Amino acid sequence: MTSVVGSPTSDSVAERVPLHRWLGVGAVALGTFAMVTSEQLPVGLLTSVSDALGVSEGTAGLMVTVPGLVAAATAPVLPVAIGRLDRHVVLLGLISLMVGANVLSAFAPSFGLLLASRFVIGIAIGGFWALAAGIAVRMVPGEYVPRATAIAFGGATAANVLGVPAGTLLGELTDWRIAFGVLGGLGLLVVVALLALLPPLPATEPVRLRTLAEQFRNPVVRAGVLVTFLLVSGHFAAFTFVSPILRDVAGVDPAVVGPALLGFGIAGIVGNFVTGAAAGRSIRVALIIISVALASVLVLVALVGHSTVTGLGLLLVWGLTFGGIPVGVQTWILRAAPDSTEAASALNTAMFNLAIALGALFGGLIADSLALTAVLWFGAVLSGLAALTVSLTRSPRDV
User: Which domains does the chain have, with CATH numbers?
Assistant: First the structure.
């Protein structure tokens, strides 16, 4: 595997990286864009689906919980199961699975069948994410791993900018089923991009169950996985219900929710690349700042986000903060495990998706049994615990 070091010090290195390698990283980013859009699209369509299929908003949140749980189970298992299969072929299969699942979502006549389609999407998401970060690492020299990782994860934040808001807007203008169908069409474009731009990627070393277990001996990997759980579950406990929060707490017009999520995503892209740039300095300090900032903004939304202006302004800060989490934690972990990137990435992916699922689940329980704003306080507490975990964790390399 490629060693992960700091940011490049000269543009001359970039000139020696073949263009097709960067295009391959871009194809992976397009795949992450499609996968994250598939996973998070129900956030923007929550009210529409709950009204159309006759379920509560808390129950509709299971559209996020189910694929998250399945992805969490798939992420560590799939790298072991595929052995030495070419990773290019596996990615193509996973994207194709996502296409079929979204088509099924578009035609689901009941909420039960819709959840079944979300189960299938969870398989695709978990497998793709487990492999994506390791593939980005293999596409470029070690000096450019932070940049390649930021690009690959930039597809995830771009999904918040374009995918989820566009899907939400499309669902509002037409029907939520059409939004899922269009997403299936996007998946076909991703298949074409991967076929054209990604080279063969045979396994360098097959991942075994003991390889996964060995990662927990690394203190930074252990802490990184825990931090992923705390930050992501805290975020999604609140963000799964961002549409009703904007509408009912901040008084935002329902027609403005789609554009507001667009602003959230744009801020997220900025946060993604700012954190990627900070990786060459101290990613650990950056993660502490991100964790404290996320806790603070969630508290502020609960306390002062009761008008359209403050609600939308804090939503932008929320997006800026969360945008740095995936690339930040992933870079921290990859630096600590340069010789086991696929195994470490699989564990982090599993925890990331488990956190999405449990965050959405507990957020739904809290929203239904307490109050909508209670999910914000819950997320803030978990984010504060993440800051404490990072601050207490050091390694010999101080990564």
Answer: 11-391 (1.20.1250.20)
**The dihedral formed by the CA atoms of 233, 265, 373 and 38, expressed in degrees to the nearest 10:** -60
Q: In 3D, which of 150, 201, 179, 147 has the Cα closest to residue 32?
A: 150
> How do residues 75-102 score in pLDDT, each as one tens digit?
788 877 777 778 788 889 999 999 999 9
User: Who's near 261: CB < 8 A, 6+ residues apart?
Assistant: 44, 160, 164, 165, 168, 242
* DSSP per-residue codes, 66-102: HHHHHHHHHHHHHHHHTTT--HHHHHHHHHHHHHHHH
- Owner of token pair 């990859």: 334
DSSP string for 341-366: HHHHHHHHHHHHHHHHHHHHHHHHHH
* Predicted model pTM: 0.71
**Which residues does 68 contact at the CB level (< 8 Å), separation at least 6?**
39, 122, 236, 353, 354, 355, 356, 357, 358, 359, 360
Q: How far is CA 127 from CA 173, 195, 208, 346, in A?
A: 33, 18, 15, 8
CB 379 within 8 A of CB 235: yes
The C-alpha torsion from 351 through 353 and 354 to 360, rounded to 10°, is 140
Backbone angles phi, psi at 55, to 5 degrees: -125, 160
What tens digit of pLDDT does each residue of 167-211 get? 877 888 888 899 999 999 999 998 998 888 887 777 666 666 666
In the block, tokens 């990564």 appear at 399
d(CA 99, CA 235): 27
Question: What is the rounded end-to-end Cα distance, in angstroms, of the chain?
Answer: 18
How crowded is the C-beta side of 307, counted as CA atoms within 13 Å? Answer: 3
**Which pair of structure tokens corresponds to residue 234?**
């805290």
Helix (H, G, I), strand (E, B) or coil at 11: helix
Angle at 325 between CA 322 and CA 331, to 5 degrees: 160
Burial class (CB in 10 A: 0-12, 13-18, 19+), 199: exposed
Q: Which helix (H) or strand (E) holds 278?
A: helix 254-278
